[in-house]
């Protein structure tokens, strides 16, 4: 029972943290191999993984298939 409560608390905490994120499209690139999306922030990473409701275009499948270049150290802590 204690383990279930801990899992529930951790799940709610994770959901709260994720829901507080803002999906921000990368400032540069178009996702092609010649012009990859330039990822410089946690918000850019969240944009890649966001649902189609949060980021309707390009859709998630297109974002996941795109090319990326990380341009900065990103502290996700």
Can you tell me about this structure?
The longest helix has 18 residues, at about 1-20. The mean pLDDT is about 85. The protein is globular and about 45 Å long. The protein is mostly helical. The chain has three helices and two strands; from the N terminus they run αβααβ.
Keywords:
single chain; about 80 residues; mainly alpha; two-stranded parallel ribbon; 3 helices; about 40% helix; about 10% strand; globular
Report the structural category.
mainly alpha
- The CA-CA distance between the termini, in Å, is 29 Å
Poorly predicted regions are none
List the secondary-structure elements in sequence, H or E: HEHHE
Largest sheet: 2 strands, parallel
Radius of gyration: 15 Å
Give the secondary structure arrangement, pairings included.
Layout: H1 2-19, E1 37-39, H2 42-49, H3 60-65, E2 68-70
Parallel strand pairs: 1-2
Concise overview:
This protein has 77 residues and is mostly helical.
